[in-house]
What we know:
Blueprint: H1 2-24, E1 29-33, E2 36-40, E3 44-47, E4 50-53, H2 59-86, H3 97-130, E5 134-136, H4 138-171
Antiparallel strand pairs: 1-2, 1-5, 2-3, 3-4
Amino acid sequence: MYSFMGGGLFCAGVGNILLIVSTATDYWIQYRHSNNYMHQGLWRYCMPGKCFTHNDSIAHLDATRALMILSLLACFMGIIIGIMAFIHYSSFDRFDKTFAAGILFFISCFFVLLAMAVYTGVTINYYGKRYGNWRFSWSYIIGWVSVVLTFFSGIFYMCAYRMHECPRNSNSH
Length: 173
């Protein structure tokens, strides 16, 4: 049980760090415009030597930002509850912390998956038609890696929950 919880905490910790880096950096896409390579993230777009904030309220960027922040919060809360489960902190007796942490990691995975899907769909539709020389960059790839890590942290915590529940259920008969 503790090995699953340790693996879940490791995946969630790394996933949360990658979520922060992915959300905060400006390398979601790179493209060539007027013989200059430019890049942009969720908050800013950069030309050679200068970066500017997105002044317009662009719906897909707003949705991606909101979903990434919700994913960060869910993952962070899952880590806190996961640590409480790991050290047997028992302020709530009827509240199974391993199950709650697993659910929060799955919620985090769902939010970041939605964020990546929204960004991918709109970006491919928009930039694919307007620019010939563009590509997704490392911030975007880190976002997809965090989807996998938060998913596996949820799997690890659900396995720990099942291992913890099986002996409890067999003793009750």
